Amino acid sequence: MGKLDVGYVAQLARLHLTPEETELFQKQLGDVLLYAEKLNEVNVKGVEPAAHGVPIFNVFREDKASDWFTPAQALSNAPRQANNLFIVTKVVE
Amino acid sequence: MTKRELPALSIVEVQDLLRRREVSPAEVLESLEERINAVDDKIGAYLAHDLAAALNEAEKADVNLPLGGIPIALKDLINVEGQPCTCGSKILGGYRAPYTATAIEKLRAHGAIPFGRTNMDEFAMGSSTENSSVQLTRNPWDLSRVPGGSSGGSAAAVAADIAFGALGTDTGGSIRQPAALSGVVGFKTSYGRVSRFGLVAFASSLDQIGPLTKTVHDSALLMNAIAGHDLRDSTSLDAPVPDYTKNLGRDLKGIRIGLPKEYMIEGVDPAVKTAVTASVKQLQALGAEIVEVSLPHTDYAVSVYYILATAEASANLARFDGVRYGHRADNIANLFDHYARTREEGFGAEVKRRIILGTYVLSSGYYDAYYLRAQKVRELIRRDFAKAFEKVDALASPTTPTPAFKLGEKTADPLQMYLADTFTIAANLAGICGISVPCGFASSESGKKLPIGLQLLGKALDEARIFQIAHAYEQSTDWHKVRAQTQLPMH
């Protein structure tokens, strides 16, 4: 199995870590991944992956409109808002 | 019965007093409030509780409903409109829920009053409640020990008689494990049995809401209220909900109980082993036939779980982006900085660790080696149980390898903390149901009683049978009658 690079993965996860955290997680998660290597012992040839414990397929419902949040409810926890809209950080330079 | 004695009662007992009009729903709430104020500064089970709002609901309470006028505490990750829902995280510090979870709508339809938000490991990630970013919760039996987790606040509240019953969630044992360590009854439902709508998601293929109570009967009553199909959760099962109290009181003749040989391993505390062995003998005395069974992939369950659960968590927690709700970092330079700093400031260490691990196992080049392989081993674990349940009606084991550990004992070593879930995790991977019931005590070095839990697992949707077995066992023992309150100063 490959090598975990905590600094790189943190970028992918959009999560800033301090150098101390990066170093600590590198060691701790290294231990966890080492432990998880025992999965390599298992013969999984021909085994279908299980996404759920209880298989559920094709869940349909009637295509019917129903009440949902009002704009005021949807915005009730927004850290920044104006004119019934969420304010986001500039996306396009 | 004085008001001060009320909080020690079970739901069934309070219900009886309410129906005979010996107490009012308001008096029940006030008695609880008094006891919370007297003891919870030592326990730390509650993050918030709003007596005025609950009294408003109590005014309209119909005591003839199945849970009429009964206050129920909620783990702080289930949305109830107008109430906080911190998930034990700083990132949801000022959040107020704008809507109500289906499970709570159902509880209310059965007459219950949601009262109090209980502490938890941040986003339900942990086995000791020490990962809460808000406060510490202590085990009511020994204040130097953890109550278990992640539903540690709910378990401690019920154990300390400051809740008649509580809801928690179980993703890898987060109801059963704290129930065992705190000496209460904890029930994990089959996957899809209780709607997850309004539950803040940790690992969506594993999470289930379930009850923590003083007795098995109370647990069945809460399940009667919250179980059932919900169009708003596409993984909710469209299967009839039986009356979970229907089998209570029946004996165990004709019931076959399997002992997974992989669960009585080295590393299980001798006191736990002794207690569980004795409870198996007791089940046999009650008429059950005991058979040894094998779950050959048991040893892989923790690895599978920590790959799949962290993968799902890394995706679920992407919604905490500082835009629609929750914390948002100040003075940000650009969009990347906005996300990365908001999440750095909002999440605690364990959540960050799991986001990193989950992102890694899903990342290009590692997906097949970790995530896909783990899903395949999950299928083998599922088959182990399916095969065992061809021969037996239920499986019996310890809920946890040890009684409650000391605060701080495992925080430095995440892997050791993860191994505390060894016996509970596989049930979530397989989607089956299970319960933890008190089955004895170990003794701490200072002579304090430390509760031990017996775990009974049943096949998917066989909840009623598990309640029958657990109830028969419970009623033939006195473990559930020993209360932790004796360890607290009189008030």
Describe what you observe in this structure.
The complex is a heterodimer of chains A (93) and B (491). Chain A is mainly alpha-helical. Chain A has a domain at 6-39. Chain A has helices at residues 6-12, 19-36, 71-74, and strands at 81-82, 85-86. In chain A, strands 1-2 form a two-stranded antiparallel sheet. The longest helix of chain A has 18 residues, at 19-36. The radius of gyration of chain A is 22 Å and the shape is flat. By secondary structure, chain B is of the alpha/beta class. Chain B is 36% helix and 13% strand. Chain B is built from 15 helices and 11 strands. Chain B has helices at 11-19, 25-43, 51-59, 102-109, 152-159, 176-182, 216-226, 270-285, 301-316, 335-346, 349-362, 367-391, 414-418, 425-430, 463-475; strands spanning 46-48, 71-75, 113-118, 165-170, 185-188, 208-213, 256-260, 289-293, 394-398, 433-443, 449-458. Chain B has an 11-stranded mixed sheet, sandwiched between helices. In chain B, helix 4 (102-109) links the parallel strand 2 (71-75) and strand 3. The radius of gyration of chain B is 21 Å and the shape is globular. Chains A and B meet through helix 1 and helix 2 of A and helix 9, helix 10, helix 11, helix 12 and helix 13 of B.
Measure the end-to-end span of chain B: 17 Å
Principal-axes shape call of chain A: flat
Q: What oligomeric state is this?
A: heterodimer
The value of Rg of chain A in angstroms is: 22 Å
Q: Radius of gyration of chain B in whole Å, from Cα?
A: 21 Å
Which pair of chains forms the biggest interface, and how many residues does each contribute? A-B, 50 and 77 residues
Q: Would you tell me the overall average pLDDT of chain A?
A: 91
- Tally of DSSP helical segments of chain A: 3
What's the structural blueprint in terms of helices and strands?
The complex is a heterodimer of chains A (93) and B (491).
Chain A: H1 6-12, H2 19-36, H3 71-74, E1 81-82, E2 85-86
Antiparallel strand pairs in A: 1-2
Chain B: H1 11-19, H2 25-43, E1 46-48, H3 51-59, E2 71-75, H4 102-109, E3 113-118, H5 152-159, E4 165-170, H6 176-182, E5 185-188, E6 208-213, H7 216-226, E7 256-260, H8 270-285, E8 289-293, H9 301-316, H10 335-346, H11 349-362, H12 367-391, E9 394-398, H13 414-418, H14 425-430, E10 433-443, E11 449-458, H15 463-475
Parallel strand pairs in B: 2-3, 2-4, 7-8, 7-9
Antiparallel strand pairs in B: 1-3, 4-6, 5-6, 5-10, 9-11, 10-11
Helix pairs in contact in B: 2-3, 5-6, 7-15, 9-11, 9-12
